[in-house]
Amino acid sequence: MTNEEKEQILTLIEEMEGLNIWSAAHQQFPDRDIETLEINGFLFKTLVHKYERALKQLKTELSAETWMYMPNALNFLTPSNDFTLANNLTRLKNYVTVTPNMGGFQVELMNQVRYQMMWGFWDRSNRKVHDVNALEVEKAVKEIQRGKKDLESQQKMIDNLRERVDQKTEEVNTLINTLNESINEILKQKTESEQKNIEIQQILNVANEHKSKIETSEKIIDIAIHDFQAKGENIGKTLIDFQNESKTLSAKLSELISRSEKKLKLINDAYSEVDGMKEFIQIKEAEIIRIAEQASNGAMGIMFENRKINLGKKVNQWMWGTLLASVGLLVWIFIVFAFLYGERYEPEWLNPLLATLKTVPAFIVVAFCSNQYMKERNLQEEYAFKASIAMTLSAYADAIEYSEDSDRRELIKKSIERIYQQPQIKKEHYGLFDLARKKKREELLHYIKEALDVIKKNQT
Does 144 fall in a domain? Predict the structure, then answer.
């Protein structure tokens, strides 16, 4: 081995010591448990341990005084007779960084182990030539670092969820504060209206008192006129004086009537103002009810929509699982009939029957994955349907409320019941005896169309 070859190999070792082989395995096998993953009969974590041990031991041997006696090439280790330490380490690195390929990684690692065995330093760690404890400690440190990265990733996800929850809580609190302000404004206006009613009642009491006085004065005048007429001419002078007093009293009465008319006008104006306040209060109440309904419907619809999105991940997982299981089924059928056909039995038809029975477990796996995919897909459709129901509940309720025709109200109710039924995920199959049900469905579609026309007219 030359000094240039040694420096090239040491440079490759330094680059490879920092590689994340676990991440490459996750990238190649995203749906597998890496802790229990096997590559060509070897546990993956065992291969990682051998990889780290091989790099450390090779680096130690190259640092010894006898490095120049180590061969760079052992062509008989590979079928292509092209084994060199530089090529071997380069291929190991590419199988991790360029295109993750744990199968090729295992083959090249075994070539490296055979090289170290043939040169006689693979088992020197057992004779304390290499520090085995250092290898174990380094392995444990890498395991701890990997676990720490996983914990940091989970903590980041939790923090993001917490921020979203805090944001939604703040939005709800803002809406509640807005509603409370509207309610306080309505209560304030209600108090002012009650105060106006009290003032109006006081004015009415004063008017009633004046009315009683007028009626009393009229009675007195009638009695006086009757007395003067009875007494005749003897009381003429007194009658004249009384007439003068009556004129004065009439003038006062006219003034009192004029004042009463003004008071009545004020009362009518106050009643008009009270009616306006009542109408304003009713408008505010309707607006609060509408805001509350929209808030509740929107929150429920968002919850169902989020649930539908979360279910979409499982649907995708089971879809890919079904595809992989189907591919595995085809591969397994090929292996069984090509390589595992077994010895021949008599009669001849027994041989394909036994081979077919060997493929039954693979068919069961494909059926299970397909069934799970359909279940998750149906559940996603149901939550999407529930979300749309939550968003349209208020509109249909308003259509029923503002409809005055009893027949039309009944038609809208039936249409709403049909519209809010859960969707049929699977297609219905009709036989020869389902003509009556088909006719009823056509009538129902006609009723629904009429109901939609009625709703559009009410909205316009």
Answer: no
Compute the Cα dihedral for 128, 131, 137, 138 and give only its sign.
Answer: negative
Question: Would you place residue 433 in the very low, low, confident or very high pLDDT band (cuts 50, 70, 90)?
Answer: very low
Handedness of CA 225, 226, 232, 234 (dihedral sign): negative
Residues 314 and 350 in one domain: yes
- Looking at the structure, tell me whether residues 309 and 372 fall in a common domain: yes
Q: How many residues does the chain have?
A: 460
d(CA 330, CA 309): 32
In degrees to the nearest 10, what's the CA dihedral of 112, 114, 118, 121? 60
User: What's the burial of 166, exposed, middle or buried (CB within 10 Å: 0-12/13-18/19+)?
Assistant: exposed
Single-letter amino acid code for the residue at 384: A
Q: Give the range of the structural domain holding residue 336, as residue numbers without chain letter.
A: 303-459
**What is the three-class DSSP state of 340?**
coil
User: For 120-235, where are the alpha helices, taking DSSP H only?
Assistant: 132-231
- What confidence tens digit (pLDDT) does each residue in 296-349 have? 555 556 766 676 677 678 888 888 988 998 999 899 888 888 877 665 666 767
Do both 283 and 259 map to the same domain? Answer: yes
Neighbouring residues of 25: CB distance < 8 A, sequence distance ≥ 6: 34, 37, 44, 100, 102
For the record, the structure tokens of 213 come out as 């006085």
Contact 458, 402 (CB under 8 A): yes
Same domain, yes or no, for 313 and 270?
no
Q: At what angle do helices 236-338 and 350-358 cross, to 10 degrees?
A: 140
Greater confidence (454 vs 251) lies with 251
Residue 250 is which amino acid?
S
Chain-centroid distance of CA 34 in Å reads: 31
Residues 6+ apart with CB under 8 A from 347: none
**Mode of pairing for the β-strands spanning 38-39 and 42-43:** antiparallel
- Rounded Cα gap, residues 71 and 373, in angstroms: 56
Residue 126 falls inside a structural domain: yes
Residue 141 resides in a domain: no
Query: Count H helices, E strands: the chain?
Result: 11, 2
The CA-atom distances, in angstroms, between 376 and each of 131, 317, 320, 322 are: 53, 10, 13, 13
Q: How many other CB atoms sit within 10 Å of the CB of residue 232?
A: 9
